[in-house]
Amino acid sequence: MTYSTDRIEALLNEGVRNKVYPGAVWAVGDATGTRAHGATGVLDPDEPNMPMQADTVFDAASLTKILAVWASIGALWEEGKLDLDAPLGASWSEVDGHPLGTVTARHLLTHTAGAPLRAQLKNLYGTDPQDIRDGVLHEALHRPPGEAVEYTDRAALILGYLAEYLSGRRLDELATERTWQPLGMESTRFGPLPAEIATRCAPTELDQDTDTHLKGIAHDFSARLLGGVCGIAGAFTVLDDLAVFLRYLLDTSTSLGRAGFGPDWIRQSLTVQTGTLEPVRGLFWHPAPGTHPADDIWVHYGFTGTGMWISPEQGRWAVLLTNKLYYTRERQPLTDVRNTFRGLAFP
Description:
Layout: H1 5-17, E1 23-30, E2 33-41, E3 58-59, H2 64-78, H3 105-109, H4 121-125, H5 129-138, H6 153-167, H7 171-183, E4 189-190, H8 195-198, E5 206-207, E6 212-213, H9 221-225, E7 235-237, H10 239-250, H11 263-269, E8 286-287, E9 298-302, E10 306-311, E11 316-322, H12 332-345
Antiparallel strand pairs: 1-2, 1-11, 3-7, 4-7, 5-6, 8-9, 9-10, 10-11
């Protein structure tokens, strides 16, 4: 198995020079381990003597949806506590009799639930976490379930609430106990981070309130509004932890411990679950841009500049972590880097 290490390094170095991101950490590998990895650029342009390193902590942003929500829902499904195709209202009293009661977990996992597309939690429901929960679980749908594939943060927020209801545990506790701890993902946790860990964290966007770049505090406003823990975002992680996680997805026997989810959940999630609807989706994962579902290369991104890819067919995985939000919210420059990186990692 070969990897275009020189070309990957050249690509990511160019991204630093072009100020797509201050720095990047990357790795590619298979079920046996990491086959190539590297780091480029700096942690913070204001501190040019601090290079980006393999153990840099990143705001995972929407990778939280996979690391915490998808993994926890998979564990509950494998335990028999959740039927993906039953209306939520049949077993969840909080949504029974409300529009969300007709939606299924599969609708949410495929972004076909018809839930509202924009967060706007504070504008709609204020700042009290219980008021927000009640509002989200009782609100009207944007369109009928199963009609269209439309990515929305609401899906993960609702599934996070569902996981808490079914397990009787907070989402951070559930993810730690059922996934991160068994797999040895010792540096993955929800924020806000303690000061000694935050110093190793890649800063993200400039916070207008403090006039400093966010570091160790979730960039996502909904996560901050909800105290740092929610299904949308809020987790922080490092390269090695994601490598362990992705190795487990390729071969569950590679880990010293077993996560709550196993091969059945992984297999179902990394196959098309949206029928004839476009764009195609699995369960929270989707085919990498520029590939066909038959290529079997699946991806999930995070808004801060994070991303991870997995291909059971090729037996390989890849991770690219950046803090592109330090500079800009503009998507296209990083999109171009990601797509080229994917092509080099999965030739």
